[in-house]
Task: inverse folding
């Protein structure tokens, strides 16, 4: 007893001494908070990205966004073509010291593909898994499937004992009236562990000294500070209260770049911003729905001055898009990127031809905390549409308010941004957006369209193991999407990060995902 | 204080006695007091009150004539031209006619938006005071005159409302309305919802004032007499009791008008008020706040100045009115 | 006295029950809790089961009873957004708001009282008039505009003070305080000034009015006649007499300040209860909204009751006065 108290006291003193030492701290001002510490309880890219610092997958993307081994060292497809065998890395431990074994992988895969998991769509082909021995796992799929590794990059591995001990084997279910342990506690294998979390205020990550990989970062702590107001974020960066933000407002980039202690990192995101249409019989106003007619969709496209939006709203930082996926994504070909050409007169003629009544009113749904300058380009588009004789009703609200309406098919025209994450392949939007809604397919097909020819191509691509053949099928499918104007691509949005001079290394990735295990700060900051 | 005698003669009603039909004297006396030359004199000799009134008149006039004098209708989406966005004020080298105060990021003329926005702010402020006033007076009269369980119910309701902070009730009402209305109705109903949300917590103050004086008056002889000769209850309330408490009510209503405009602006600033396609002053400030550091200061500064000027002039008038009507401070 | 205490307590309990009813109605009827909780793939059977498990099929009276019982025990359910116990969330945020309100209250007293005395004592002097005008400007400036200007001036342009967040905090048990670190204290300055602007003018005006009245009182005249130095009379005797109403006002305004802090917290990204509430509003997180409403109202009602009781204890004549008004409209 005495001994233990003494030890605790020593530890406390040591802790104090440690705190007195200069620490390398990255103060990350994000535009929003993560939803939870449980990556499986909240189907949201940002939450998953942040938690990737704590939890890891069997494989991961390297600096060039190529897949490399992480918790698995190697893999092979067995003779039946549907079972994949993974050899796991040995000597890896979780943050609480427990060893990493095959049981943990099986339990994690079961958890993420549970009926109640919001992330089960991220592992669409999964059927079952089995621990062959302590360091070998077999994963069985529902058919030949080329993209399992891409999916696994973001399937995080939990410790089975930890989950069992804390009754967290299932994804959090608030319906049961109890909060999940994993919502506010975390125990992964990643380069950082969670020190404390205060939702919407501050989440602190500290360096994991026992990480299996050689750290390329020099951080001791990461403080994630959600600063929702863009103006405040800029102020905080200028005054040094934060030294990194992954969302510098595009309108403030000149000012940030001019500041002596701030550098701006800019690029074009892989995220393509698109307009979607309803395909049901009636609009929310009760009027007949004209958007099922491809002529009407084309007319709305021709009425939008993409160039003006690019120049004014996006301040020349976006990339105007004609294709529904960005150029670096496999499946893209330049022919898909042809632009419709801004022509309000042709738009009016098409609308007249399709018999759309003058002053047709419909709801135009945008998200206030969504894409880069979404509220602004939505207003601009609404204004352009009203000039060809339509009467869009702009409905701007936070994501949490709009999402249920969208998933229940209660919106008319809407905006959607798709970055093909985490798959980084054209198959992602094809399966999740453009495929008819059934099973794991078409989860984001909010308009409720169905094009049998398109479905056939997507299904064929989904079981084609030959890369070239698969990409050809995907390109053909994207061609149908374009010809039918199922969704209207606007642009790939700009991404802008900013750091103060305390941060010496911060690699920017085209998927707009901070990977702070590559970041370096000036010692002592 | 010297009183202009001649004016008094003209305005003052002929001398009357209480033996007359009771309806008339009280009403006339009160009306006369409202137009009291004393009050008018006080107004004329208070430069700040005159200044505030002139300012308010100017703001109101330009706001209501906005459709006639502004170069643009900022609520008509088709009239916004993105090419003309972010033009600085006219005195700046890059300024452009007719955008006197510049344009915002959508090409909305700031001056037009301010005038239209002031109109919305003034209407919402005025309508909410009017609504609170009519509900408060009616309930206060009823409670004070009849007493008993009606009084109890009304006053308890008031207690409950006063036990929740003003701003909280208003936010809850607007937030719930926004979450439960379909998008099509949200536009149309945004202003009525705000009027309602601001009026709900503020009627209690009027009701309490009126109730107190109604309770006193209801016991007085002339009211008892009127009852005896079967004058209708509403007549007694309206003609005898109400005029007796107009002074504090007027002061409160004026000050609450300023408060209502501030509340509307605050709600819109917090994002639960007027939507961005029909902005009030608070909405304009909320939008402009996003560009505070982008060098686009004019988007946030001019609407803020206009808002402060409106509230300031209303408060100055209210302040003067309170002092002028307070016998202790004469 | 005991009868009075009992009456006051019953009153407060009644008001809280009514507030709870309102919170319950919001919780139950706006935004179907089942739709908020299930994910999009849930089947009809899942929904029905959840509905049963949450007790949404019971009679409304039963549900209300359960809501109140749970609320009394501090159980407001689980946040739809953070999936955390609402009470835990609020408890984490309470210290931030409390410290902000505390500092703002201290500022309002330390600045407001002397200004009030000065304007009363040197009535009609140029300084007093300027201060009077300043006080009207003070109540007319929307607090979000004050906040934005403070950030623009002291944080962005001059870089003297932090413009967002709480800085470093130290945990003492479950209470996290910003008082003990330099960055925590610096972070408090701008938000508390912004929050106290309105309050300063309120205190100042009250002190002025009370002082003017007191200075006319006989005992002050006697004191002067006795040859007590003027300054001593003004600052000691007269001021002491005004302090009771000031303390009352301050006590009753704390509830309003807590509510109004939500505007300040939004502008300064201050991680308090108010920001939690505003975020809950934008995300339609009903349990958090309901809990916030109940907790702030509870503080409000408790303070008012406390003030009433103190008053009655000091001045027994007030014990049968039932028409005392509650807090003003912040």
Result:
């Amino acid at each position: 007893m005495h001994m233990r108290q003494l030890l605790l006291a020593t530890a406390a003193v040591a802790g104090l001494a440690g705190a007195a030492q200069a620490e390398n701290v990255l103060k990350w001002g994000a535009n929003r908070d993560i939803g939870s510490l449980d990556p499986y309880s909240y189907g949201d890219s940002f939450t998953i990205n942040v938690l990737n610092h704590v939890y890891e997958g069997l494989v991961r993307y390297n600096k060039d966004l190529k897949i490399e081994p992480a918790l698995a060292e190697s893999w092979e497809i067995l003779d039946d073509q549907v079972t994949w065998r993974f050899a796991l890395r040995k000597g890896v431990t979780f943050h609480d010291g427990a060893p990493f074994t095959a049981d943990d992988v099986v339990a994690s895969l079961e958890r993420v593909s549970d009926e109640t998991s919001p992330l089960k769509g991220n592992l669409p082909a999964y059927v079952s898994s089995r621990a062959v021995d302590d360091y070998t796992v077999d994963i069985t799929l529902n058919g030949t499937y080329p993209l399992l590794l891409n999916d696994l990059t973001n399937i995080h591995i939990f410790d089975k004992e930890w989950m069992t001990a804390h009754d967290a084997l299932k994804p959090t279910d608030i319906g049961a009236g109890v909060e999940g342990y994993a919502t506010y506690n975390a125990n992964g294998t990643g380069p950082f562990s969670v020190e404390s979390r205060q939702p919407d205020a501050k989440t602190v990550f500290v360096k994991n000294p026992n990480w299996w990989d050689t750290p390329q970062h020099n951080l001791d702590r990461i403080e994630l500070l959600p600063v929702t107001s863009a103006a405040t974020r800029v102020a905080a960066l200028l005054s040094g209260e934060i030294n990194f933000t992954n969302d510098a407002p595009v309108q403030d980039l000149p000012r940030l770049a001019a500041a002596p202690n701030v550098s701006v990192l800019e690029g074009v995101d892989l995220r393509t911003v698109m307009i979607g249409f309803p395909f049901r019989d009636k609009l929310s106003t009760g009027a007949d729905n004209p958007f099922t007619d491809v002529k009407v969709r084309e007319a709305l496209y021709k009425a939008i001055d993409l160039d003006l939006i690019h120049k004014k709203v996006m301040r020349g930082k976006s990339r105007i898009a004609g294709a529904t996926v960005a150029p670096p994504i496999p499946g893209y070909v330049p022919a898909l990127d042809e632009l419709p050409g801004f022509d309000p007169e042709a738009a009016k003629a098409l609308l007249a031809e399709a018999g759309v009544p003058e002053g047709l009113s419909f709801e135009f749904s945008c998200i206030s905390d969504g894409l880069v300058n979404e509220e602004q380009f939505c207003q601009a588009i609404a204004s352009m549409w009203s000039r060809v004789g339509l009467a869009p009703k702009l409905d701007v609200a936070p994501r949490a308010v709009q999402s249920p309406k969208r998933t229940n098919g209660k919106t008319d025209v809407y905006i959607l941004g798709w970055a093909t994450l985490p798959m980084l392949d054209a198959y992602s939007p094809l399966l999740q957006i453009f495929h008819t809604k059934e099973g794991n397919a078409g989860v984001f097909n909010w308009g409720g369209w169905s094009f049998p020819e398109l479905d056939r191509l997507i299904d064929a691509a989904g079981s084609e193991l030959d890369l070239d053949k698969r990409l050809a099928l995907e390109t053909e499918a994207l061609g149908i999407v374009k010809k039918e104007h199922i969704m209207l691509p606007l642009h790939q949005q700009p991404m802008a990060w900013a750091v103060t001079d305390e941060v010496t290394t911060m690699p920017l990735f085209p998927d707009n995902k901070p990977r702070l295990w590559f970041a370096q700060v000036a010692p002592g900051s | 204080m010297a009183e202009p005698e001649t004016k008094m003669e003209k305005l003052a009603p002929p001398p009357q006695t209480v033996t007359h039909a009771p309806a008339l004297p009280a009403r006339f006396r009160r009306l006369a007091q409202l137009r009291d030359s004393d009050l008018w004199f006080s107004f004329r000799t208070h430069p700040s009150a005159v200044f505030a009134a002139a300012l308010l008149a100017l703001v109101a006039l330009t706001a209501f004539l906005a459709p006639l004098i502004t170069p643009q209708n900022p609520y008509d989406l088709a009239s916004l031209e993105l090419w003309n966005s972010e033009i600085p004020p006219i005195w700046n080298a890059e300024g452009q006619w007719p955008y006197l105060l510049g344009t915002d990021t959508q090409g909305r003329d700031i001056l037009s938006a301010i005038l239209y926005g002031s109109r919305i702010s003034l209407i919402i402020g005025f309508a909410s005071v009017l609504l609170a006033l009519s509900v408060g007076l009616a309930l206060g009269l009823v409670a004070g005159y009849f007493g008993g369980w009606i009084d109890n119910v009304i006053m308890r309701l008031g207690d409950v409302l006063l036990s929740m902070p003003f701003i909280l009730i208003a936010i809850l009402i607007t937030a719930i309305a926004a979450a439960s209305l379909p998008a099509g109705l949200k536009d149309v109903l945004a202003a009525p919802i705000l009027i309602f949300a601001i009026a709900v917590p503020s009627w209690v103050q009027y009701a309490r004032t009126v109730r107190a004086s109604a309770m006193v008056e209801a016991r007085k002889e002339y009211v008892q007499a009127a009852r005896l000769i079967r004058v209708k209850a509403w007549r007694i309330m309206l003609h005898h009791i109400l005029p007796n408490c107009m002074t504090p009510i007027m002061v409160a209503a004026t000050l609450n008008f300023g408060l209502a405009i501030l509340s509307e602006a605050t709600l819109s600033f917090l994002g639960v008020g007027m939507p961005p396609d029909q902005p009030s002053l608070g909405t304009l400030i909320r939008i402009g706040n996003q560009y505070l550091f982008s060098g686009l200061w004019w988007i946030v500064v001019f609407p803020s100045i206009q808002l402060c000027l409106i509230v300031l002039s209303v408060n100055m008038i209210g302040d003067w009115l309170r002092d002028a009507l307070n016998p202790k401070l004469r | 006295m005991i009868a009075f205490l009992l009456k006051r307590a019953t009153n407060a309990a009644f008001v809280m029950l009514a507030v709870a009813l309102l919170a319950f109605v919001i919780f139950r009827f706006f935004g179907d809790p089942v739709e908020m909780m299930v994910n999009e793939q849930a089947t009809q059977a899942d929904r029905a089961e959840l509905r049963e498990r949450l007790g949404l099929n019971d009679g409304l009276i039963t549900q209300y009873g359960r809501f109140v019982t749970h609320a009394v025990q501090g159980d407001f359910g689980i946040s739809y957004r953070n999936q955390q116990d609402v009470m835990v969330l609020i408890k984490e945020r309470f210290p931030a708001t409390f410290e902000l309100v505390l500092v703002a209250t201290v500022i309002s007293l330390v600045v407001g009282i002397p200004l009030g005395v000065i304007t009363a004592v040197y009535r009609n002097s140029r300084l007093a008039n300027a201060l009077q005008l300043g006080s009207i400007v003070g109540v007319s400036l929307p607090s979000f505009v004050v906040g934005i200007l403070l950030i623009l001036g002291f944080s962005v342009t001059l870089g003297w003070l932090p413009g967002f967040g709480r800085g470093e905090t130290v945990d003492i048990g479950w209470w996290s305080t910003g008082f003990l670190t330099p960055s925590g204290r610096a972070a408090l300055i701008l938000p508390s000034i912004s929050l106290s602007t309105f309050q300063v003018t309120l205190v100042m005006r009250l002190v002025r009015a009370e002082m003017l009245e007191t200075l006319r009182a006989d005992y002050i005249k006697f004191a002067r006649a006795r040859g007590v130095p003027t300054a001593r009379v003004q600052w000691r005797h007269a001021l002491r007499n005004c302090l009771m109403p000031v303390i009352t006002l301050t006590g009753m305004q704390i509830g309003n300040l807590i509510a109004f802090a939500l505007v300040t917290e939004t502008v300064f990204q201050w991680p308090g209860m108010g920001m939690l509430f505003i975020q809950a509003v934008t995300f339609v997180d009903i349990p958090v909204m309901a809990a916030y409403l109940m907790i702030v109202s509870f503080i409000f009602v408790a303070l008012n009751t406390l003030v009433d009781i103190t008053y009655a204890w000091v001045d027994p004549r007030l014990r049968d006065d039932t028409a005392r008004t509650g807090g003003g409209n912040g």
About this structure: The two ends of chain C are 31 Å apart (CA to CA).
